[in-house]
Design brief:
Nucleotidyltransferase, domain 5; 2 domains; single chain; 5-stranded mixed beta sheet; 5 helices; 7 strands; alpha/beta
Length: about 190
């Protein structure tokens, strides 16, 4: 009887070589968890590098921001960029700029009006998006916009942009500039 139980036990126990070979056949070309982790780390590093460490990026061929010795760090907020060719809201084109002016058909109220209608609509979308983001993060929404303007843009256009942004519930403005070293301002 003991021999019979031992035979049953030996038959039920898998053979070492056969079992290992079966595993390889079943796995096919499956990825190892270490390989998956390596891939995920590479993707994470790529995404972090592509986002960057600065919330504001002034990298347009038709945009030369003014210089300053400002010490404030930029924050993540609604960004309005005024270039020689267009006005952008968070890198989305809102309206074209021609010779430092907006076409009168794009203004609400005619040529001398301050309200730029396509910009107003794009700012409303951006404000709603920022409010939703802050609500999901359980943070307080601050109605602040950063204006990045080419140094050759006429004051009238900057005024029109600020007026339109004010109508879109943005009540605080920050003007982005390129930080310069003290030596470039007379060596002080």
């Amino acid at each position: 009887m003991a021999e019979q139980n031992e035979d049953v036990w030996n038959q039920a126990k898998p053979k070492g070589k056969k079992r290992r070979g079966a595993r390889r056949d079943e796995a096919g070309g499956a990825l190892n968890i270490n390989s998956m982790m390596d891939i995920m780390v590479i993707i994470l590093v790529f995404l972090l590098k592509s986002y960057g460490d600065e919330p504001l990026k002034v990298q347009k061929e038709d945009l030369k921001a003014p210089s300053s010795m400002a010490e404030l760090q930029p924050k993540d907020m609604t960004t309005i960029t005024i270039t020689q060719k267009a006005i952008l809201v968070d890198d989305t084109k809102a309206v074209d700029v021609k010779r430092g002016q907006i076409d009168k058909s794009q203004k609400k109220g005619g040529e001398n009006a301050l309200m730029i209608q396509p910009l107003f609509e794009e700012l409303n979308k951006a404000v709603k998006q920022k409010k939703r983001e802050k609500e999901l993060l359980k943070q307080k929404y601050e109605p602040t916009a950063t204006i990045i303007a080419d140094q050759a843009i006429p004051y009238r256009l900057v005024t029109e942009v600020m007026y339109t942004a004010g109508q879109a519930e943005l009540s605080q403005f920050k003007i982005a500039v390129i930080k310069k070293q003290r030596a470039s301002f007379g060596g002080q």
